[in-house]
Specification:
Strand 4, helix 3 and strand 5 form a beta-alpha-beta unit. It is built from nine helices and nine strands. It has a nine-stranded parallel β-sheet. By secondary structure, the chain is α/β, with parallel strands linked by helices.
Length: 256
């Protein structure tokens, strides 16, 4: 069984809690070998410290996404450009978004999202870059977002039918929308290409004061044979340096 790599998300620490340099140095010292959701201006900083970039966005904003068939040409241009950047910088994953519903029914939105992803999937396959469609909650953080349930996302990936189009399964978001996390991971794992974590409620530390029991969840992920990245996307309640060290150390044994 292969090793899963822990990463940590840039925006949770920079700029509110640390400078970019402080964050990169501290993450490396804590044991992380990759950073998630790194903005392009900081790719060189991250790689200069010997760290990988686990993911960046394929297109923005997340509220206006692939469920908009009228925007597919613009979105394809943006995604293709970022596939080229990802190849150059050895970025494994590009995060894609369904966008908000804005009155679209789920079947229509899914069909449009499939068409948008099919348009760019061959380029992702040729580059060896994975496009991960992010599942987000529409209850608390992202009202009206369409890809807010695992079964909707799995259906999209199945119809696209590309080994380079998968889901970003965000455990925090799917706990809010669905719960039943471990059973869902076991069923959906062939279509999951990246994971995010955070404590719920609050999107804070993965500690004993929130409702998700991460040791069991992470062991369940490992048991599926997954060998990609698990990105910790939490906002620390206390000292950020301590949070980085504690999180890495606490969960390393569950993933290796």
């Amino acid at each position: 069984m292969g090793t899963i790599t822990q990463t940590v998300s840039w925006w949770c620490f920079v700029p509110n809690l640390m400078t970019p340099e402080q964050f990169v140095r501290t993450a490396a010292a804590a044991g992380f070998t990759a950073i998630d959701l790194v903005p392009p201006p900081y790719w060189e900083l991250v790689t200069a410290h010997g760290l990988a970039i686990a993911s960046t966005q394929a297109h923005l904003p997340l509220e206006v996404g692939l469920n908009r068939a009228d925007l597919h040409e613009r979105l394809a241009d943006e995604i293709l450009a970022n596939i080229a950047h990802a190849t150059r910088w050895k970025i494994a994953n590009l995060v894609c978004f369904s966008g908000n519903r804005n009155g679209l029914d789920d079947a229509t939105g899914a069909a449009a999202t499939v068409a948008g992803l099919k348009r760019v999937a061959p380029a992702a396959e040729a580059a060896g870059v994975t496009l991960v469609l992010e599942l987000l909650n529409s209850k608390v953080d992202h009202p009206d977002y369409q890809a807010d349930r695992t079964d909707w996302g799995v259906e999209v990936c199945q119809v696209v039918g590309s080994p380079r189009v998968k889901l970003l399964y965000d455990i925090y978001h799917m706990q809010i929308m669905e719960g039943d996390i471990i059973r869902t991971i076991q069923a959906a794992h062939p279509w999951i290409g990246h994971y995010h974590t955070a404590g719920n409620p609050g999107r804070n530390d993965l500690d004993d004061e929130q409702e998700l029991y991460y040791p069991a969840i992470l062991r369940a992920i490992r048991a599926t044979g997954y060998t990609g990245y698990v990105g910790h996307e939490f906002i620390p309640k206390g000292d950020p340096t301590a949070a980085l060290h504690t999180t890495f150390e606490r969960y390393a044994q569950c993933l290796t």
